[in-house]
Specification:
This protein has about 160 residues and is α+β, with helices and mostly antiparallel strands. It is about 45% helix and about 20% strand. The protein has five helices and four strands; from the N terminus they run αααααββββ.
Length: about 160
């Protein structure tokens, strides 16, 4: 037999020792190849966009918290100012002369760069006879913010 006849035989080509198949690199199409490891540009951009949106939310919460912190500091400072006035007025409850001499008061004070204005008015015989009702209105230069305190003094003499 000639070599041409052996190639045309019904035997399997591997049994004859001749290889008729194409190289493996030519059989695999380019779309069947394994993808390269890593991320695509679209995946990176989407992750960056999601991260940016999340960070903007966190930053807005931090900004709002700092504004509320400043407001709370103003309210605390103003409360101390009113408390100081009310402590002096409550000491007057034990002396008849000091109690009768309590009058309206207006005070302006600058604390930590903020101007606080306090107006306290006294009303006699309210809500009971011989009692005095003190209404203090406190305002500070923070967008017109204010607070109102009502306190009732009764004589202790």
């Amino acid at each position: 037999m000639t070599p041409f006849c052996s190639a045309a035989s019904t035997e399997h080509p591997r049994q004859t020792g001749y290889s008729i198949s194409a190289p493996r690199t030519l059989l695999r199409a380019s779309w069947q190849e394994k993808p390269a490891p890593g991320f695509t540009l679209i995946e990176v951009l989407m992750a960056a966009a999601i991260l940016a949106i999340g960070l903007m939310g966190v930053l807005s919460v931090i900004a709002r918290a700092s504004v509320q912190d400043v407001r709370a500091a103003h309210v605390s400072q103003g409360s101390f100012l009113v408390e100081e006035f009310l402590e002096n007025a409550s000491r007057a409850q034990h002396s008849a002369q000091a109690f009768r001499s309590l009058t309206n008061s207006a005070t302006t004070r600058v604390i930590d760069g903020a101007r606080y204005s306090m107006n306290c008015t006294l009303v006699d015989n309210t809500p009971l006879e011989r009692c005095k009702e003190i209404t203090c209105t406190l305002s500070w230069d923070n967008n017109g913010a204010n607070a109102r305190y009502v306190y009732v003094l009764s004589p202790k003499f």
